Amino acid sequence: MSNLARYRAMESLCRQNAVFRPLESWRLLAEAEKWHHKAQEEMACRLKERADAASAGPVIQTAPDAADESLLLAG
Questions:
Q1: C-alpha to C-alpha distance for 49 and 70, rounded to whole angstroms
Q2: Taking CA atoms, which of 44, 47, 51, 59 is between 20 and 30 Å from 36?
Q3: Burial letters for 35-57: b for 16+ Cβ neighbours within 10 Å, e otherwise?
Q4: CA nearest to 31, candidates 51, 49, 7, 64
Q5: HEC states along the chain?
Q6: Is the separation of the CB atoms in 47 and 72 below 8 Å?
Q7: Is the pTM of this model over 0.70?
Q8: Averaged in consecutive runs of 10 residues, what is the pLDDT profile of the chain (75 residues)?
Q9: Which has the closest alpha carbon to 29: 42, 8, 13?
């Protein structure tokens, strides 16, 4: 299970428990908020990793060979 899914599951469980335990709801909602922030941090980290990977290496495009072009036209 990925960290993001785990954080979202914990947030959901805390919110559900807060409904059924009104005396502890303040603590459970605070804990749910903590898990929510952890999930947001995880998403931001993933987005940064993707952006870094995309900018790390330039994509090199080459022109097709004449033989490749003739195969495409004959196709």
A1: 40
A2: 51
A3: bbebbeebeeeeeeeeeeeeeee
A4: 7
A5: CCHHHHHHHHHHHHHHHHHHCHHHHHHHHHHHHHHHHHHHHHHHHHHHHHHHHHHHCCCCCCCCCHHHHHHHHHC
A6: no
A7: no
A8: 92 98 97 98 94 76 57 48
A9: 13
